[in-house]
């Protein structure tokens, strides 16, 4: 399935990157055609300066087979995929790279190196994944979280998942993003933990424990997305019908929702991991060129925002 044309929503992110310097990026184990070509597509678009981390001979072999000119691109030799992940993370810790990009290794291998207690990229925040989705039938970019990392998030986990998503949307230029906290129903039910968590998150936002966004929940998917559905249920909400972020109750719900939007609504999805020291670009072999470029663009905007924040503290 190819979805290269899109609706122009991703192109807004790409256009915001045109006046930004490309960001040094550690690409972990780019040892197949898709991952290596993806890194060089991002380089050609002026988004990143790739540092290739993996078995050097294998990377050069893939490049030769695909006709990719490595030029003076830095290559850090690594013995295998686990070593590639560790060395890519080390480049970030040493300040040589400001972004981390997944190559042809498994996501668990890369994230295992990221969360390693002594040598990883942990912060006080829990890491979480976000799909930034261009859904042709929706009027703006829609962020779905968490669909890839936190299997059964607790309330405390959801605080970080929510804050990570809000901060990213602000980075993308959305002031005070609206967060719909999803459940199966729109009323609090003591037998349904997702509804209790949603109510708690909303109260935490009122008390300043979550900042920068407008939260509402629990909301069922229909009244989160449709003003008419919300009106029929008698729901008065600033969020209903106009959310920027859909916070799902668990990984299974989030993953199913994101894939339904992709395969039934013809949506594109850009993937990024948040909450580590630097943004992490997670792409899939199934991603379109447009999705891969959008993932890099979103990460570049986040990296520049992080750079600005660090400079402000000096």
List the SSEs and their pairings:
Blueprint: H1 9-16, E1 23-28, H2 33-44, E2 48-54, H3 56-66, E3 75-77, H4 81-93, E4 99-102, H5 107-115, E5 128-134, E6 142-145, H6 155-171, E7 178-182, H7 193-206, E8 214-219, H8 221-225, H9 227-232, E9 245-247, H10 251-264, E10 268-274, E11 280-281, H11 289-313
Parallel strand pairs: 1-2, 1-4, 2-3, 4-11, 6-9, 7-8, 7-9
Antiparallel strand pairs: 5-6, 5-10, 10-11
Helix pairs in contact: 1-11, 4-5
Question: Mind explaining what this structure looks like?
Answer:
This protein has two domains: 1-122, 3-Layer(aba) Sandwich (Rossmann fold); 123-275, Isopropylmalate Dehydrogenase, CATH 3.40.718.10. The longest helix has 25 residues, at 289-313. The chain has an eleven-stranded mixed beta sheet, with helices on both faces. It has helices at residues 9-16, 33-44, 56-66, 81-93, 107-115, 155-171, 193-206, 221-225, 227-232, 251-264, 289-313; strands spanning 23-28, 48-54, 75-77, 99-102, 128-134, 142-145, 178-182, 214-219, 245-247, 268-274, 280-281. It has 314 residues and is of the alpha/beta class. It contains eleven helices and eleven strands.
């Amino acid at each position: 399935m190819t979805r290269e044309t899109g609706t122009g929503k991703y192109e807004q992110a790409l256009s915001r990157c045109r006046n930004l310097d490309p960001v040094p990026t550690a690409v972990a184990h780019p040892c197949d055609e898709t991952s290596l070509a993806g890194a060089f597509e991002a380089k050609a678009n002026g988004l990143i300066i790739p540092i290739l981390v993996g078995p050097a001979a294998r990377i050069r072999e893939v490049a030769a087979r695909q006709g990719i000119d490595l030029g003076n691109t830095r290559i850090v030799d690594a013995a295998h995929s686990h070593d590639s992940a560790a060395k890519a993370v080390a480049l970030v810790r040493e300040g040589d790279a400001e972004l981390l990009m997944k190559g042809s290794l498994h996501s668990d291998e890369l994230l295992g190196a990221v969360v390693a207690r002594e040598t990883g990229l942990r912060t006080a925040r829990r890491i979480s994944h976000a799909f930034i989705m261009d859904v042709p039938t929706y009027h703006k970019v829609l962020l779905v979280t968490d669909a890839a990392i936190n299997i059964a998030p607790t309330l405390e986990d959801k605080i970080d998942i929510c804050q990570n998503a809000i901060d990213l949307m602000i980075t993308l230029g959305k002031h005070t993003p609206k967060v719909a906290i999803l459940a199966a129903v729109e009323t609090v039910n003591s037998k349904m933990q997702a509804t209790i968590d949603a109510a708690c998150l909303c109260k935490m936002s009122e008390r300043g424990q979550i900042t920068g966004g407008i939260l509402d929940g629990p909301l069922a998917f229909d009244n989160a997305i449709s003003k008419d559905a919300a009106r029929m249920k008698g729901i008065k909400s600033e969020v209903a019908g106009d959310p920027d972020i859909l916070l799902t109750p668990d990984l299974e719900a989030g993953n199913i929702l994101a894939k339904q939007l992709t395969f039934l609504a013809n949506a594109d999805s850009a993937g990024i991991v948040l909450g580590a020291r630097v943004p992490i670009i997670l792409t899939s072999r199934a991603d379109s060129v447009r999705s891969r470029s959008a993932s890099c663009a979103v990460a570049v905007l986040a990296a520049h925002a992080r750079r600005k924040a660090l400079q402000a503290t000096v």
